[in-house]
């Protein structure tokens, strides 16, 4: 991918570009907890975005999205927001750096990615992190890594219409090879947990059912959680107990009750998984993954028929753990599979899914890798 990006850059703008990369991420457990002030447990993957960038001495950005074959040119003032949705990510990052006092100018850039779009691996966060990291580096803005992650998050909020939490950008910036990161989304304290499950593989099955998160039920789920937190007299659902929830059940809607029940349960599952990993107890990790899946399907209602089907096939094949990953409404399941069951599981999932839905799921083996960097 590096060669491809460099070659295109040279064709369009000439020599002298510097290459930067940021990864997509998986999240082992802890879904829809980030905007509730809870814990998440992501890791960076060996797939992401690569960008070639060269400062051009003007106040204009010339950008080319290699995978789409589209170009965009825009200035750096608020009124210059580009028409192309992908270019809004780059523009938003520039604006958010400026709001924090970073002095930046125009640049030429080409980028491409091998994070599957819409698979719940956060291609958008990888894109934001690449440009936040690169511009900070090239212009010596002196912005710390936490703030780089927040720049990506603010870009989503202010320029792309998604009211996301901090997890995706955090994982992309802070990723570390061979480690998952437990992040407390309220305090932003984090800890690395070595993740090298001997005898198991981590694999994603992409249903190839796509979803657009903007204007989607994502923001509705968040509103449900905020309403319940308010009734409980809290800012977030974080730290609330099932007993507290039961006590206010008659003051909230059935739907809001179900949403909160999922989130409160998920917070406990993340901590259970951390404890289990420290003991090398992957059976417990797997059990919690299945619980998360069915909680997201029945209580949070962000799954879809295809993903439920994949989780059922995983269970039938004896897979240790399986769940929907990402915001929902399509995308991938993440599966923790014993080595000896792997081949049969993949073959069975492909065959059964194809018979029912007319296409095979895509298979991505996961390698936990490093975060944003200059190549």
Automatic annotation (TrEMBL):
Positions annotated to bind substrate: 31-34, 218
UniProt-annotated binding residues for ATP: 118-124
Coiled coil spans: none
SUPFAM superfamilies in UniProt: GHMP Kinase, C-terminal domain, Ribosomal protein S5 domain 2-like
Keyword terms, alphabetized: ATP-binding, Carbohydrate metabolism, Cytoplasm, Galactose metabolism, Kinase, Magnesium, Metal-binding, Nucleotide-binding, Transferase
Domain of life the protein comes from: Bacteria
GO process annotations (BP): galactose metabolic process
Family affiliation: Belongs to the GHMP kinase family. GalK subfamily.
Protein name: Galactokinase
Source organism of this protein record: Alistipes shahii
Organismal lineage: Bacteria, Pseudomonadati, Bacteroidota, Bacteroidia, Bacteroidales
């Amino acid at each position: 991918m590096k060669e491809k990006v460099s070659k295109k850059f040279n064709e369009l703008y000439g020599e002298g570009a510097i290459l930067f990369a940021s990864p997509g991420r998986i999240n082992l457990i802890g879904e829809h907890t980030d905007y509730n002030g809870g814990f998440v447990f992501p890791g960076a993957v060996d797939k992401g975005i690569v960008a070639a960038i060269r400062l051009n001495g003007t106040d204009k950005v010339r950008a080319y999205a290699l995978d789409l074959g589209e170009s965009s040119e825009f200035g750096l003032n608020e009124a210059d927001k580009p028409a192309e949705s992908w270019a809004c990510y780059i523009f938003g990052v520039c604006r958010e750096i400026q709001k924090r006092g970073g002095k930046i100018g125009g640049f030429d850039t080409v980028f491409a990615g091998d994070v599957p779009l819409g698979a719940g691996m956060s291609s958008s966060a990888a894109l934001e992190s690449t440009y936040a990291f690169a511009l900070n580096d090239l212009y010596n803005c002196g912005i710390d890594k936490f703030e780089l992650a927040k720049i990506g998050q603010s870009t989503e909020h202010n320029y792309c219409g998604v009211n996301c939490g901090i997890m995706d950008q955090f994982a992309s910036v802070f990723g570390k090879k061979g480690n998952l990161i437990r992040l407390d989304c309220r305090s932003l304290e984090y800890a690395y947990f070595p993740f090298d499950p001997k005898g198991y593989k981590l694999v994603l099955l992409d249903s190839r059912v796509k979803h657009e998160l903007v204007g989607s039920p994502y923001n509705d789920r968040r509103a449900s959680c905020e309403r319940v937190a308010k009734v409980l007299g809290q800012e977030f659902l974080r730290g609330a107990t099932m007993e507290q929830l039961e006590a206010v059940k008659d003051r909230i809607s059935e739907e809001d009750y179900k949403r909160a029940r999922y989130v409160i349960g998920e917070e406990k599952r993340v901590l259970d998984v951390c404890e289990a990993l420290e003991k090398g107890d992957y059976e417990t990790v797997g059990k919690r993954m299945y619980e998360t899946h069915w909680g997201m399907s029945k209580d949070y209602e962000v799954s879809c028929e295809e993903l439920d089907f994949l989780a059922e096939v995983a269970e039938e094949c004896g897979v240790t753990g399986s769940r929907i990953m990402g915001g929902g409404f399509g995308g991938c399941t993440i599966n923790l599979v014993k080595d000896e069951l792997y081949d049969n599981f993949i073959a069975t999932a492909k065959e059964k899914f194809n018979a029912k839905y007319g296409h095979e799921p895509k298979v991505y083996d996961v390698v936990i890798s490093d975060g944003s960097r200059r190549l």
